[in-house]
Amino acid sequence: MAVLNEEQSMLRDAAKSWVQDKSPVTAFRKMRDSGAELGYDTAAWNEMAEMGWAGVVVPEDFGGSQFGYLSIGLILEELGRTLTASPLTASAVGAASALALGGSDAQKNEWLPKIAAGEVVGALAVDEGAHHAPEKVALKAEKSGSGYKLTGAKTYVIEGYGAGLLVVSARTSGAPGDKDGVSLFLVPGDAQGLVKTRLALADSRGAANIKFDGVEVGAEALLGEEGKGWDVLEKTLDRARAAISAEMLGAAVQAFETTLDYLKVRVQFGQVIGSFQALQHRAAKMFTDLELARSVVEAALQAIDADSPDVPELVSLAKAKMGDTFHLVSNEMVQMHGGSGMTDAHDAGFYLKRARACEATFGSQSYHRDRYAKIQGY
After folding, report:
1. Which of 30, 72, 226, 342 makes a 20 to 30 Å CA pair with 107?
2. pLDDT value at position 2?
3. Which of 154, 240, 223 is nearest to 185 (CA)?
């Protein structure tokens, strides 16, 4: 477990306290049953913003606290425990990181204070197919007057339906699959020519498919250098991947602890089922996997804070390991709870659905194993 400084300890404790008091799993169930259009409770999100969580990775000069990625990971871990839905990863990590890494002073001044205050929700519009493949950019950005015209489509844009700002990857040269020729653009969520289609996801979170029908943007919308956006995009995605891995860790730990508590009280064949050696072995497997997963997730977040050259491999290691672990623990949660675990009245299904959605977000286990192998030269 990472050694935390005083600020990080206070941040974690505040998040734990708020989640327990204001956002238990029952709050998520209520949000789901309400059919909330955005996939999260806006009042809860406003409270998070008021506590400064939306500005944790934003530089102080632009309204944030710049506490770093391990700090935002601590918050996301606590939110993950109770499945609290929020745009924290998409906006406060994804969009904020893209601006911090590649934005001009004018772009940072315009957008980062709004993101840090929770006034604007940002989203990464990256993928265009059924699977995560950020290099396969086909959406075109053609010169139009003094600016650009964007034509194409993006799929599975997390928090895209209600986003006020989209960080869009587009192709200004080359072909899909080429890393050269990728450019990033800042597009207001209400831009003319944007067509958003809300997606109904298994985990009840917010996402959208977005069509760009000749969306006109000015030259000031270009984030970084034309055709050289891949480096910023990859670094941004790694930060979002590490963040969602931290949320997955919290959810998996809670799923395990809930299951462990059940094993200690459920009686079958005249005995507490936790006394059965087969179930003890399965619980031990989950515990050891969670301990390893925590180590790799925290290593990835700390590497980002240290601007370490091995961030890509550590992030892919964390996302792949966390995907496997959350998959296992969510399955075991359902199975060990027996018939009750199969019902919607029990929370087990929520954790299983969240596990499957998180696995696919920003790259599955197979995607990150392949990426890790390529980085290592295998």
Report:
1. 72
2. 80
3. 223
